[in-house]
Amino acid sequence: MQEFGNLKKCLLTLGLLLAVTAQILTIDDEVQLYLLIAIITLTGIPHGSLDYFVERQSSSVTPQKISVKQFLTRYLLSMLAYGIVWWFFPTFSLIAFIGMTAYHFGEIDWPFRSNTKLDAVLYTIYGFLLTAFILTSHIDSAAPILETIVQKKLSTVFWMRLGSLLFPYTCLLLALNILILSSIHAQLGWNKKLLSQFIIQSILLLVIIYWLPLYLSFGFYFGLWHSFISFNLIRKQIQLPNDYAGWTSLVKKALPFSTVAWIGIFLLIVISSSFQTEWLILPNLLVGIAVLTLPHLQVFTKIKVS
C-alpha cells in the first residue's frame, strides 16, 4: 500500500509556497511560460523517458526480453500513428488525449490500486475531474491555447463559454466524488487513515491549482507532482535505492531517451510552426506531449503502484 510519504508532503508544501507567492506577487506571463517550458523539459518529459526500463522490468519474468530496437520501433510507430490522427482530426485527438490524461493522472494519484474494473473507473473519473478543474478554473488563459490546438475549429469564445459553464459542475462533482469514496472506501481496501490522507491531498492539490495561474498550475501538477511521483514509482519498479545514488542512477538512465524526446519535440515545433503564421511554442509543445502520452500510457499501466 502506498504511503503518504515525505515526497508528497514536500511537493504539497512547495506547491502551497508557490501558490501563496503567486497570490502576493504578479508573475509576468512570459516568465510563467519560460518556467513552464523549463519544468516540462527537466521533469515532465524525462519521467516518460524511462519507459524502456519499466517495460524491460515488466517483461523480465517472461522468457523473451525486449530489445531497445524493438521497444523504440513500437514506441515511435505508436507516436507516428497518433501524430497523424492528431494532424487530421485535432478535436477528436484532443478529446482522446483528455481521456488518456484522466486515466493516467488518476492512476498515479490513486492511493491504493487493486487492479479491478471498479478501481479503473473510479480513478479515471477522479483524473478527469482534476483535469477539468485545471482547465475550467483557468479558462480565460486556457481558451486561446485550446483554440490553437484544435486548429481553430472551435473558437476561443466557445471554449470560454464551455469552461465557465462547466466550472461549478466540476467543483460539485469533485465534492460528490470525495463523498462517494468516503462511503465505499472499505470496499476499495482503504482504511480510514488512507482515506483521510487522500482527501487532504486532493483538497491541497485543488487549492494549489486554483491559486496558481494556468502555466504554473499545469507546471506544478504535471511537471512536479505527477512527474516526481512517477519517478519514485519507476525507481521502485526497477529496484533502485531511495538515496542519492539511486536517484542519480535514475537520472542517468533517463538522459539518453530524454535527449531523443527533446529533439523530437523541438523538430515537431519547428515543422508545425512552418505551416503557421506565428511561432507557437506552447500549443505545439502540448501536442508533442500528447503524442508521447499514448505509448507512455501503454507502458506505465504495467507498473506496480501498490
Description of the molecule:
- The protein has 306 residues and is mostly helical.
- Helices cover 79% and strands 0% of the residues.
- The chain is built from twelve helices and no strands.
- It has helices at residues 6-24, 29-48, 51-58, 68-88, 90-109, 117-136, 139-149, 156-184, 192-211, 214-237, 244-274, 281-300.
- The longest helix is centred in the last third of the chain and has 31 residues, at 244-274.
- The model has no long low-confidence stretch (mean pLDDT 83).
List descriptors.
single chain, 306 residues, mainly alpha, 12 helices, 0% strand, globular
Question: How would you summarize the topology of this molecule?
Answer:
Elements: H1 6-24, H2 29-48, H3 51-58, H4 68-88, H5 90-109, H6 117-136, H7 139-149, H8 156-184, H9 192-211, H10 214-237, H11 244-274, H12 281-300
Helix pairs in contact: 1-9, 1-10, 2-10, 2-11, 2-12, 4-5, 4-12, 5-6, 5-12, 6-8, 7-8, 7-12, 9-10, 11-12
State the share of residues found in helices, binned by percent. Answer: over 70%
Oligomer: single chain
The parts where pLDDT drops under 50 for at least 5 residues are none
Number of helices: 12
Shape: globular
Mean pLDDT: 83
In what range is the share of β-strand residues?
A: under 5%
CA radius of gyration: 19 Å
Query: Roughly how many Å apart are the termini?
Result: 5 Å
Strand and helix order: HHHHHHHHHHHH
* Count of extended strands: 0
User: Could you give a short account of the major beta sheet?
Assistant: none
User: What is the SS-derived class?
Assistant: mainly alpha
